[in-house]
Every structure is written in structure tokens, then in C-alpha cells.
Amino acid sequence: MDAKCRREERSFFHRLLQWVDILDPTTLLASDKEIENTQAPLQDSQRNLKEPVKDEQIKETRRLMLSAVHPDTGHLIPLVFRPQAFMPIATPLVIGMLLPHRGMKPALFWQFLFHSYTAGFNSVNRNKTTSRDEKVPLKQVLLLVGSVTYTTCLGVFPQFVMYRYGLKNPGIQSLFRNIIPVPVLAIAGAFNAVAVRGVELEKGIEVTDRNGNVVGVSEAAGAKAVKDTAISRAVLIGTTVAVPNMLGSYLQRMNFIKRAPFALAPIRHIATALVFGLMVPVSFSLFPRIGKISRSSLEPLIQSATTQDELYYHRGL
């Protein structure tokens, strides 16, 4: 949580460029041993994160560390839950989730897969300053199970209503297929993040001063970290659902789609993949990973422990 890292995240544009770099999927090819071997030189180097990176090898090593090592624990993030794995794994799940399923079973299946993966991603990449051990507490497991169950049911709700009440009117079908899923799935994505990271709301997270010294554990900072992450998930999923739906509605009125209606489905799938791929770095960049909170917003005990006006915390992802 040093000044160098905060400077790199000073604007949305800087954060976006950094995330585009970190999300390079080729870094997934690096072995765990290779990543572990890169940690020692960085820790020994005085140039680490506190001075400008002058060497390309150090810069590449640092990128590998940011994409594969959890900043709170120093442990390697499981391969499938690393930031650069999110897009290639979640994209087919999003496409499958948004298919016009002919029954409830496939709809439940794809919703379950998507929300299970995102719940795992949220859990692995959360703030762990108050739970640095590798053991997953029972409460966290229950939060994961409850979150996946609720968001899966919430995600299929529009389709359930259509099948339960046999809605055949084209206008009503369009409402439940193209409009209602946008806020429903955005809310589901936000709820997933909040539920999975509920421990941060209850226990709080560490806050530090500008020099990186821990001042205390704050529930207010934990709530802010979770809220910002939930907003970013809602923006990611809501936009991914809305744009292809609007594009599909527009294309349906065009002559070439009327002559070749079979072309609409692949166009929507491609649009979904493109929008999701573009929105992943955008949503990750909405808020800085090193969050800032005013001292007056924190608990009295923390306010009395420092004279600095602003404190910092790791938001998680």
C-alpha cells in the first residue's frame, strides 16, 4: 500500500492501462515455481515498489506478481481464479447463461456455473488482512453456498415466470427476455460480491497510513471496499446483458436479419463476448485497488490513533 502503487492508480485511465497489462492471459503460462522464484529478487531489490521501475525484467516480474500473488497473504492465487483467467473462463459461462433456454434445467445449470465461478473468484480475491491463514472458515463456506443458491434462483426468475405462467405475448416475452434480466442479473452480481465478502463487513479490514503502517481494523473501510466491488460487478454484468439485448432488438428490425434470422444468434453471442471482454478491465478499473478513506469516516479508536486526514486499505477485487 505504498505511495508508488497509489500514484499508479491516481486516475481511471491509469488504472485501465494497468489492468489491460495485468490481464494478459499469456502470464497464465508461468509456472508456480517460476512465480515463486521471482519474489526473492523483488523483495531484495530496493527498486521494488517504492522506486520507479527502470529495468524491463523487474517490470515484467512485478506484473507477474500483481497478477498471481495475493497482496495480503503473499500466497499464490489458484490459477483459475487469477484476474487474467477471469475473462477466458467466465466468457463462455456468460454466453451460456444468456442463451434463450427452452427449459428450466439448462437455465439453472448455466446460472449455477456462472455464479459459482464468480463467487469463488470474489472469495479468493477479497481483502484478507484479518484472515491471512489458508484455511477457509465454515462461515465463509456457508456464505459461498448461500450466495450461489440465491443468485442462481434470482438469475432464472424472469425465465421461471415466463414458463410458469405460459407468457406467449411477444411484447411480454421481450420484456422478460431483454429488459428485466438486465437489472436482475446486475443485482445478482452485486449481491454475490456482498454476500461472499460478508466477513469483511463483520470483522472489518486493516487500514494503513501513507507510509504503509497499520493503524487499525475498520468495519467502515470494509463496508466501503465491499460496496465499491459490488458496484463494479453490477456494472460489468449489467452492461454485458444490456448491450447485446439492445443490439439484438435493433437488428431484428433490419431486412437482412428478417431474410436470415439464423444469423441473429451468433451475432448476439459474439457481441456478448466482446462486451464482456471490454468491460472486465473497465469494471476492475472503476475503483482503485488501494482505496482511500477519510479519518473522520472511521471508528473513534482509529481516529485517535493517527493524525493523518486520509488512510488507505486494500479493496480486493
TrEMBL record:
Membrane topology classification: Multi-pass membrane protein
Protein known as: Sideroflexin-4
Gene Ontology biological process: amino acid transport; mitochondrial transmembrane transport
Compartments (UniProt record): Mitochondrion membrane
GO terms for cellular component: mitochondrial inner membrane
Pfam families named among the record's database cross-references: SFXNs (PF03820)
Record keywords, A-Z: Amino-acid transport, Membrane, Mitochondrion, Transmembrane, Transmembrane helix, Transport
Transmembrane segments: 141-163, 175-196, 230-247, 267-287
UniProt family annotation: Belongs to the sideroflexin family.
GO MF term set: monoatomic ion transmembrane transporter activity
Species assigned in the record: Callorhinchus milii
